[in-house]
Specification:
Blueprint (H helix, E strand, L loop, with lengths): L1 H10 L10 E5 L5 H7 L5 E5 L3 H18 L5
Parallel strand pairs: 1-2
Length: 74
């Protein structure tokens, strides 16, 4: 569903290239949308989560994802 929404957004001809946008996930939960967004050429990916337990899981997921795909950024 995430990819479908992004494709729909891109078809709407955003005002700038994707590389000029920052992806912001408010209520990031465990970070899945941020990890999916990190596969795209956004300038940056930012998440905000108020639940400490979910934020900790998201941070752990990011560490595991970076190890797996070898991304040092984001």
């Amino acid at each position: 569903m995430f990819e479908a929404l992004v494709k729909r957004w891109l078809k709407s001809r955003p005002s700038a290239r994707v590389e000029e946008f920052t992806f912001v996930d408010v209520g990031a939960g465990m970070g899945r949308a941020m990890l999916l967004a990190a596969r795209m050429p956004f300038r940056a990916v930012v998440g905000a989560e108020l639940n400490p337990a979910l934020a900790k899981i998201a941070q752990r997921n990011l560490v595991l994802w970076r190890r797996r795909v070898g991304h040092g950024r984001r």
